[in-house]
Design goal:
It is a single chain. Helix 1 packs antiparallel against helix 6 (114-130) and helix 3 packs parallel to helix 6. A hairpin with a 7-residue loop joins strand 1 and strand 2 (151-153). The chain is mainly alpha-helical. A two-stranded antiparallel ribbon has the order 1-2. The longest helix is centred in the C-terminal third of the chain and has 25 residues, at 154-178. Helices cover 60% and strands 3% of the residues. It is globular and about 50 Å long.
């Protein structure tokens, strides 16, 4: 994938979230069909939280002081982790998955300004990707913010993040559809 492709997909996702959810009230954004399902606001908060958790990892990589575990020296493991995680965040959502605790939504009642925050966040995400072109050219390997033993290439990380957003848009849309507006 290319930076332009990720930017285009992020713009498309941003537009989809805005079109579907920007006019909803705080009560609607926080509505949940059941205790096991995240609200629309929790889905959005989760995306911001997970994406921003990559910022310190990328900062360390740019500064040349990202410490990787020995697993990063094993190309087949780097590829295996990347492919496995990418498959797990696929929008088809055939398998329900749980997230690492650091990426759980922070609270159950999230203010409605989360939609504006998400829009601003998307621009920051695009900037982060654009500023990583040198690292991408080098085939840089990074670790997951959740576990330093989970390693994958930076281009795979960006693909995971964007695909993950697509997955959560579908999940949030299902919550809105269940509201019977």
């Amino acid at each position: 994938m290319s930076i332009d492709n990720w930017h285009s997909r992020i713009d498309q996702i941003s537009h989809s979230f805005d079109r579907e959810f920007a006019s909803l009230t705080a009560k609607q954004l926080n509505w949940k069909p059941n205790a096991q399902t995240w609200s629309i606001a929790q889905n959005v908060d989760h995306l911001v939280t997970i994406n921003e958790s990559y910022y310190p990892v990328l900062k360390s990589a740019k500064e040349g002081n990202l410490r990787l575990s020995f697993v990063s020296k094993l190309g087949f493991m780097v590829n295996l982790f990347g492919k496995s995680i990418l498959k797990s965040v696929s929008p088809d959502r055939a398998n329900k998955m749980t997230t690492f605790p650091i990426w759980e939504p922070s609270v159950s009642e999230i203010p409605e300004h989360i939609m504006r925050s998400f829009s601003q966040h998307q621009q920051s995400l695009k900037q982060m990707i654009a500023e990583s072109s040198e690292l991408l050219e080098k085939g840089t390997i990074i670790h997951s913010p959740a576990n330093k033993n989970i390693v994958y290439r930076l281009d795979t990380a960006f693909e995971i993040l964007v695909t993950h957003e697509e997955r959560h848009f579908i999940q949030a849309k299902e919550v809105k559809d269940a509201m019977n507006l």
